[in-house]
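#onboarding

Welcome to the new folks! Below is a worked example of what a typical request in this channel looks like: someone posts a single protein sequence, and someone else replies with the predicted structure as tokens. Don't worry about understanding the tokens yet, we'll cover that in week two.

Example request:
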Amino acid sequence: MLRTGVVGVNAITLLLPDLSWYVKFRVEYMAIPAAALLLAFALDAMFKGLLQAWAKRVILAVNAAALLLFLVAPTVFMTRALPYVYAATMLCAAYVLVRFLIGLRARRGVRQIIILCGLVLYFASDDASYTTGQVVCVDGGWTAGFSGDYQGLLTLNVEI
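Example response:
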């Protein structure tokens, strides 16, 4: 979704109509590792200690290498390398997610993990492509008037 939002069907063409196809192609491919870097380090800044020092270096190296590859490699090579870049980026994302969930479990409990997993599954589904410009409040039903136990409940607002 982030990649589509940045370089979607017409977004980059509307913003920069004079760019050549070659430059647009590179910008589109570079959005993937750039978004992965931004997300990992933003989460690490929000949740201190989320990423171990070695993991920060690995995530930075993997995504910086992908950025460099997409900046200078021939376009045919870029297309062939894309599945490997996706795989490396997904491994980094899986590590960040697992560390986040482990830390969350230690702080909040299993309830919040289930609630957050529902949000992650929704955003991973095709249905999420119809959700734009919304603030999704993940608070266990608090804003919907749920009258259950709120002790230690994690509240997370996601702006789309």
